[in-house]
Amino acid sequence: MSKKLIENLKSFNRKERFYLVGQMLGNPDFRMDDKQLDKISELIDTQIPREYFAAMDYHLDWIYASLFLTQNHDEKPFPRNFIDNKKVDLQISGTQEDVDFLLAFVDHENTTHIVMIEAKGDSYFSNGQLDSKNKRFKAIFGNGNTWRNVRAHFLTCSLKRPQKISIEEPVYFMCNEESELTWFPLIMDTGKNKVTRCMNNNKPCSEGDHWKVESRS
Predict the structure, then answer these.
(1) What is the pLDDT of residues 68-85, one digit of tens each?
(2) Which of 72, 81, 175, 184 could form a disulfide with 170 if both were Cys (CB 3.0 to 4.6 A apart)?
(3) Reduced DSSP (H G I as helix, E B as strand, rest coil) percent helix, strand, coil of the chain, to 5
(4) Residues forming beta bridges with residue 53, ordered by sequence position
(5) How many angstroms separate the CA atoms of 133 and 60, rounded?
(6) What pTM value is reported for the model?
(7) Phi and psi (nearest 5°) for 8?
(8) What pLDDT sits at residue 217?
(9) What's the longest Cα–Cα distance across the chain?
(10) Listed residue (60, 59, 71, 212) closest to 138, CA to CA
């Protein structure tokens, strides 16, 4: 299961941005900084080996497909799991919904860990976005016993710790007992500018016929 799951995850990694960034930085295998690996090890309370798979903008559909294909299936094509006949499938949604960074590895007990990181720099985590992720995670991972020897983790990364987060019945790895997200800080320069559409009176407006530059501290 362990090696097969990692190979499945690798096989779906077809984002051109991953290959372009790796090529431009001379790091095609997305080798991570050791300090960041140690930080994530601390957050998930598991020592991360130096053999792992890392990717960016990784689709949630690909995660479920990778898990699904570790089992033997005779039927092809595979039926989708629609909910209430509404043509809603939270396992294979056919959407671009993803996690910003994915890290997968096998620990010394032969358990495969899938670490999913969601980052926010200029914006904030919203309950709507996190609730959507939570519903997808429930459908993909089930409970802690759905996929044998697989452990999932969800981490948030932003300038400030997420506030006023309320997720209805969060999946087992989404929040701690105090309903707090597992978080670590995003290191980002201050004083960045942004372009805002506005009216002639400077009032922000998405349909405005003017624009202005605003600075973020």
Answers:
(1) 999 988 778 999 999 876
(2) 175
(3) 25, 25, 50
(4) 104
(5) 9
(6) 0.92
(7) -65, -45
(8) 61
(9) 65
(10) 60
